[in-house]
Amino acid sequence: MNIFLKILFVLLGLFIVLNWGLIMSGIIRKIIARVGMRRGIKVYQPYINLIKNYSLRSQLTHGVMFYLGPVFRLSGGVGIFLFMPLIYGSEYWSNFSFTGDLILIAYFMFFGMLGMALGAGEGGHPYSGIGVARGLAQFTAVEVPFTLAIIALAIQYKTLSISEIVAAQQGGIMHWTLFTNPLATIAAMLSFLGAMGHSPFNVVMAPQENPIGPPTEYHGTFLGVLQTNRAILHVVEAVLYMNLFFGGAGNWGVLILKSFLIYFWAVFVGMVFPRFRVDQSIPWLLKIPLVSGILAIVLLMIK
Fold first, then answer.
1. 119 vs 152, 195, 246, CA distance in Å?
2. Are 147 and 86 in contact (CB under 8 A)?
3. Which residues contact 81 (CB under 8 A, 6 or more apart)?
4. Is residue 162 very low, low, confident or very high in pLDDT (cuts 50, 70, 90)?
5. Are 112 and 73 in contact (CB under 8 A)?
6. Can you say how many angstroms the Cα of residue 90 is from the centroid of all Cα atoms in its chain?
7. Taking residues 36-57, what's their average pLDDT?
8. Residues 206 and 279 sit within 8 Å (Cβ to Cβ)
9. Of 17-21, 103-107, 218-222, 225-229, which one has max mean pLDDT?
10. How far is CA 207 from CA 195, 198, 226, 275, in A?
11. pLDDT, average across residues 248-255
12. How far apart are CA 22 and CA 118, in angstroms?
């Protein structure tokens, strides 16, 4: 395919993912409000918030890294998208995926978190260090079972190409990793709860504990960049899990449906369970998810 045509479809795909992320955010917040017997926001409210924040300018002065933090965070989300095949069998919607792209995407997942940690470290709030420590500690605990699940998939499918992993799951629902390797799926889907940051794993924001965090530290355009990344990141991470464990998607309709259901898994758990303390969330991630990831590898090795 011509490189310019490829770039055009990549940008179009990014536009679709961004808009679906904003719409999904509005739908999810509406559902959460209804569960709490409230009317909630309008579904299009995320668009209004984004436009409003991009129209504002900050008058505060912090270190350079403070301003680069949201940029690094957005780079992580966009980086995952760029190398993520979206639609199975489509040359137009495969983005820049290649053999071994799963490893690169795993790096991008941590890249944004590190950028935000460096940015928060130069903020003016005295508790920024606490948020950095909480965030990095929990995300490291999230990465351990997810990495074990990736290793299990590499052993099972003998590849680190997302496209090849999706191809191996074609032929019916029973070919999905969900059924061929349930232990790796359990490890990954439980770690997904921590990666999304909803209750009970929202130990960084801790809204019931401290009125601080990125919505307070960052405002105006910087908050708009973070909101843009959140819309993209939630969709592409759901698509990643869809590709690895739920057979991928053959068209945009299937992608939208599966990504919504996967993301709603984290939201549903958040509506049912109260928030963990940081000394509860990390040990939890290093119990059942960790053991499931180890067992998935062991069982594949002894076959």
1. 34, 19, 35
2. no
3. 13, 14, 17, 95, 232, 236
4. very high
5. yes
6. 23
7. 88
8. no
9. 17-21
10. 17, 11, 17, 10
11. 93
12. 26
Helix axes 221-245, 3-35, angle to 10 degrees: 100
Amino acid at 205: M
The candidate with the shortest Cα–Cα distance to 168, out of 256, 246, 81, 258, is 246
Task: For residues 260-266, give the mean pLDDT.
Answer: 92
pLDDT surpasses 80 at 99 = no
Report which DSSP code applies to 213: S
| Residue 286: partners with Cβ closer than 8 Å, 6 or more residues away | 141, 144, 145
Please give the average per-residue pLDDT across 92-119, as a whole number. 84
11 CB-near residues (< 8 Å, 6+ apart) = none
Q: If you count them, how many residues does the chain have?
A: 303
Q: Give me the sign of the Cα torsion angle 264, 268, 271, 274.
A: negative
Note whether 196 and 230 are within 8 A (CB): no
Q: The tokens of 124 are what?
A: 């003016």
> Quick one: pLDDT at residue 107?
87
Residues 6+ apart with CB under 8 A from 287: none
Q: State mean pLDDT over 202-222.
A: 66
Q: Which of 257, 255, 195, 199 is nearest to 230 (CA)?
A: 195
The two structure tokens encoding residue 13: 């795909």
Pick the closest to residue 246 from 179, 299, 294 (CA basis): 179
Amino acid at 81: F
Distance of alpha carbon 251 from alpha carbon 195, whole angstroms: 26
Which of 81-90, 110-119, 189-198 comes out lowest in average pLDDT?
A: 110-119
How confident is the model at residue 226, as a pLDDT? 86
